[in-house]
Amino acid sequence: MIKIDVVTIFPRMLQAPLEDGIVHRAIEAGLVSIGVHDLRAFTDDRHRCVDDQPFGGGPGMVMKAEPFLRAVDTLTAAERAAPRAVVLLSPRGRRFDQAMAERLSRTGHVVLLCGRYEGIDERVCEALGAEEVSLGDFVLTGGEVAALAVIEAAVRLLPGALGDEGSAQADSFSDGLLDFPHYTRPSEVRGKRVPDVLLSGDHGKIGRWRRKEALRATRARRPDLLARAPLSAEDQSLLRELESEEFEVAASKS
Ligand code: JF5
After folding, report:
1. Ligand 1: does its nearest atom lie under 6 Å from the Cβ of 89?
2. Domains by residue range for the chain, with CATH
3. Which of 112, 114, 131, 177 could form a disulfide with 8 if both were Cys (CB 3.0 to 4.6 A apart)?
4. How large a percentage of the chain has pLDDT more than 70?
């Protein structure tokens, strides 16, 4: 059983989302225990103040170091150093990805710190050996939604978390490519048919079609992933097919 603790000034932003779906089931099944903690409980002044003006001047407020440091000290008091990870969610962080989700899902204790305002006093990261992690190149109003994303990505990877054991293996990124497109009944939706091959019952053909469509989507949307993906000889040949199809389309338009 792994433990995840979240430190936030808005505990309610996390509570409801953790009470539904796969994450809730994983908690009930004893695969993970998730604690949500109010940062203000770790202040020591009458007004439970968590922020202050930035040294050096400028607009906005900075989250004070000491409440976060006390929170992490309290939450990790019972344990020796490893295996644990302290993660601070902020747009300045290293990009979160599936590899990081896998690593966290194998970490006994993960503490997620949610920043707000202009950021958190830099000495929190230094003092705790925390890693600063970002979901992507956009700015949220706080780290809470990012923390939820990290929790979901890691918890669904815990052995036994997914009903169908195959589905974590099959989804996007497990092989370095985007997933192929999916279809279900009815076979026609607003004049749009399901690709015939999916109704053919020929599983060899279906497998090749799906691999080709995964390559097509990755090439069009995420060429950065395609450049790093391990490709078989069959993949190379499917990519050449895609390229010549594209050439045909371009030629027919000129
Ligand atoms: C935050 C200072 C934290 O905006 C984010 C974020 C984006 N990707 N991942 C996290 O976090 C909120 C904003 C400003 C610290």
Report:
1. yes
2. 2-155 (3.40.1280.10), 188-253 (1.10.1270.20)
3. 114
4. 96
* Nearest alpha-carbon partner for 76 in 66, 67, 84, 68: 84
Q: How confident is the model over 91-117, as a mean pLDDT?
A: 96
The CA dihedral of 81, 82, 83, 87, to the nearest 10 degrees, is 60
- Per-residue DSSP letters for the chain? -EEEEEEES-THHHHGGGGSHHHHHHHHTTSEEEEEEEGGGG--STT---EEPPTT--SS-EE-HHHHHHHHHHHHTTS-SSSEEEEEEEEEEEEP-HHHHHHHHT-SEEEEEE-BTT-B-THHHHHHTPEEEESSSS--SBSHHHHHHHHHHHHTTSTT-SSSTHHHHHSTTTTSSPPPP---SSSEETTEEPPGGGGS--HHHHHHHHHHHHHHHHHHH-HHHHHHS---HHHHHHHHHHHHHHHHHHHHH-
Q: How many CB atoms lie within 10 A of CB 67?
A: 26
Give the range among 28-37, 43-52, 172-181 with minimum mean pLDDT: 172-181
CA pair distance 142, 238, nearest whole angstrom: 43
pLDDT of residue 167: 66
Q: Catalytic one among 38, 66, 152, 171?
A: 171
Task: Assess whether 156 carries a catalytic annotation.
Answer: yes
pLDDT reported for residue 186: 98
Instruction: Tell me how far the alpha carbon of residue 122 lies from the centroid of ligand 1, in angstroms.
Output: 14
pLDDT at 164 over 70: no
